[in-house]
Design goal:
Elements: H1 25-28, H2 34-48, E1 74-76, H3 91-95, E2 101-107, E3 115-123, H4 132-136, E4 142-144, E5 159-160, H5 162-165, H6 187-208
Antiparallel strand pairs: 1-4, 2-3, 3-5
The structure holds iron/sulfur cluster (2 copies).
Length: 214
Amino acid sequence: MRPEALDLPGVQEHPRTLAPRRMTLAEKLYLPLLPGLLVTIRHFFGNLFRTRKSYTIEYPEQRRQYSHRYRGHHILTTRPDGSVRCVACYLCATNCPADCIHIEAAEQPDVNVEKYPVVYEIDMLRCVFCGYCVDACPEEAIIMSNNYDMAFYSREQSIVGKADLMKPYTFDATKLGYRPYYPEEAGERAAMRRQAFDLVAAARGRAAEPPAAA
Ligand code: SF4
Ligand code: SF4
């Protein structure tokens, strides 16, 4: 049964029949499109006759300098001895919303480390460059660089492994991208951290040496 209409001042009954919307004359002539077209035409002639400053970048001859927090191609960082810093804890893969990180772990000969990744792959065509893997990593083993050159000729090429992800220890730390724990890190501070890594590596080396004969 149809409910009673509210008999209140200012309250109208909800319409119960459907009527096709009638277009105005301007809409029939597509006139509402004109403001958008005029913006396009203004930009077209502005760029054609260079009547204003052009922001076009002639890539790849010219390259844009992005923020140090830019999230580009991933990097797997290494220890001073060249081994991968990743301890195969799977935190990055677990946090990845695109499910695009594949890790296969193996036992690390160094008893202080426990595990390392035999296989570490990122499917770059599935990655959404959110940086969650970098946020999750407890070892700063995965970071994101300023590199935005990611062109692939086949689907297989887009799945990058350790060979593409690992950078040598001497990689220029000032060119690094997104590292949430060191957002404002300067080159000087990066050098200090490297010296600290060297000290740890030297101490481990001394501990592994056989004791001198008495
Ligand atoms: S950036 Fe985001 S989507 Fe890409 S691998 Fe890391 S967590 Fe996954
Ligand atoms: S979170 Fe870091 S240490 Fe753990 S598996 Fe990922 S890259 Fe390796």
